[in-house]
């Protein structure tokens, strides 16, 4: 009798593994298109943007940001996360509105921190150009994430190039609304970020408004709906960033870092 029980258990596990693997294949090979007003974003994604020559007065590597008012950040699906829920280092592709890869971002963390602290973990994310040159470093210290502890608010430092701080993202305490202040390298407030109630929205996309210090909206960071299977079985997310073309490239780099912080704080909990 026991041998039949073992056989049933074995068959159940086998079917479950096949089912999860099928879901992964669907997610990996048939991802929904990133939302973009420009239809050219539907073009093949194997193109990459060649970096521009250095421009005097701009941090090396950020020259291309002078030409864009929109970026798409696509988190890569990891097989081990889809199958076992094992938290791995996050990896992102940063694209322009034409679907061309502009930068790559890779989290640098150890296994113990990822598994024990989950989305609360400290991290260093290194942003590389298409030639593997590190141009931006994003650092987040470990802090308690709770609206009941206003003394332990989230903070992010952005360096471009590494070793040269260009700005900070600071969480502002509020019992219900996600609010952040964007500071320049001199710790002077420059912009604000504000999200929906508790970082949640009944709409497929979740928007975090980019505001001036006078509360005028000039852009947004949008968490984009990626499809039922991807949302249910992974913590892989897509984001869109819109900002003025003439915004300082240093602040554009800070907005990329803010996007990663928003991802960890509100959308890295599916596992």
From TrEMBL:
Q: Does the keyword Glycoprotein apply?
A: no
Q: Which InterPro entries match?
A: Scramblase, Tubby-like_C
The cofactors it requires, by name, are:
Ca(2+)
Q: Does the keyword Lyase apply?
A: no
Instruction: Identify one Gene Ontology CC term for this UniProt entry.
Output: plasma membrane
Q: Which Pfam family, any one, appears in the UniProt record?
A: Scramblase
Q: Which UniProt keywords apply?
A: Calcium, Lipoprotein, Membrane, Palmitate, Transmembrane, Transmembrane helix
Molecular-function GO terms, alphabetical: phospholipid scramblase activity
Transmembrane residue ranges: 7-30
SUPFAM superfamilies named in the record: Tubby C-terminal domain-like
Known function: May mediate accelerated ATP-independent bidirectional transbilayer migration of phospholipids upon binding calcium ions that results in a loss of phospholipid asymmetry in the plasma membrane.
Its family remark reads:
Belongs to the phospholipid scramblase family.
Specify the protein name: Phospholipid scramblase
Which organism is this protein's natural source?
Cyprinus carpio carpio
């Amino acid at each position: 009798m026991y041998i039949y029980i073992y056989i049933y258990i074995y068959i159940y596990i086998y079917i479950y593994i096949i089912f999860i693997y099928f879901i992964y294949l669907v997610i990996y090979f048939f991802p929904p298109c990133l939302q973009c007003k420009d239809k050219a974003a539907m073009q093949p994604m194997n193109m990459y943007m060649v970096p521009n020559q250095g421009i005097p007065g701009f941090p090396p590597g950020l020259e291309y940001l002078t030409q864009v008012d929109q970026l798409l950040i696509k988190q890569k699906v990891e097989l081990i996360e889809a199958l076992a829920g094992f938290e791995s280092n996050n990896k992102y592709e940063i694209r322009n509105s034409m679907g061309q890869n502009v930068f790559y971002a890779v989290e640098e963390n150890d296994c113990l921190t990822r598994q024990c602290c989950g989305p609360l973990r400290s991290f260093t994310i290194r942003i590389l150009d298409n030639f593997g040159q590190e141009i931006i470093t994003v650092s987040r210290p470990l802090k308690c994430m709770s609206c009941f502890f206003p003394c332990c608010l989230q903070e992010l430092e952005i360096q471009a190039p590494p070793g040269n701080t260009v700005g900070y993202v600071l969480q502002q305490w509020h019992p219900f609304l996600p609010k952040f202040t964007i500071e320049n390298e001199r710790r002077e407030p420059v912009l604000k970020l504000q999200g929906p109630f508790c970082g949640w929205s009944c709409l497929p996309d979740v928007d975090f408004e980019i505001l001036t210090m006078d509360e005028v909206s000039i852009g947004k960071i949008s968490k984009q709906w990626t499809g039922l299977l991807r949302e249910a079985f992974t913590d892989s997310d897509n984001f869109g960033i819109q900002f003025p073309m003439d915004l300082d490239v240093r602040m554009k780099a800070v907005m990329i870092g803010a996007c990663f912080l928003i991802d960890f704080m509100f959308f890295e909990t599916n596992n």
